Fold this sequence. Notes:
By secondary structure, the protein is mostly helical. The chain contains 4 helices and 3 strands. It folds into 2 domains: 57 residues, no CATH class; 54 residues. Strands 2-1-3 form a 3-stranded antiparallel sheet. A hairpin with a 2-residue loop joins strand 1 and strand 2. It starts with 32 loop residues before the first strand and ends in a 19-residue tail after the last helix. The C terminus is likely disordered. The structure holds zinc ion. The site of zinc ion has 10 residues, from helix 1.
Amino acid sequence: MSRRRQRTVDTAVRCHYADQPSRRPQCTLTASVELGPLALCESCAARRSSVGKGQSSVALPAGPQVDVLTWIGAAHEHANAADRTLSAAITRARQAGHPWSDIGAQLGVSRQAAQQRFTRASGHPSPAAPDSKDKEATAD
Ligand SMILES: [Zn+2]
């Protein structure tokens, strides 16, 4: 018998496939069993093929259901935090003298797309850099 992982009682456990609505439209979101590191809802556990093969499922203790609106709020907070981190990293890269072309390459977009996105979104102008041609947002 495997030991049950200790969980906070008031935290809903999301199914591994909860964030793949197009792949698993029937997912009921709230996990009811664990297969090793994976938590699955009843529907996804019933449909699993190769996932968790050879592992026996362990029933999770009954807990709260996943609340999709709460999930939206939490995801929004995470997205905002990620945006702030990205913005800070880009500002630091600009301060270190990296051109927009290098930053764009890291983001998988063009120099111009990166520059337009982050000189507007950050709210503060980018420091002067070797390839800055556009002077419309200059303020220092
Ligand atoms: Zn599921």
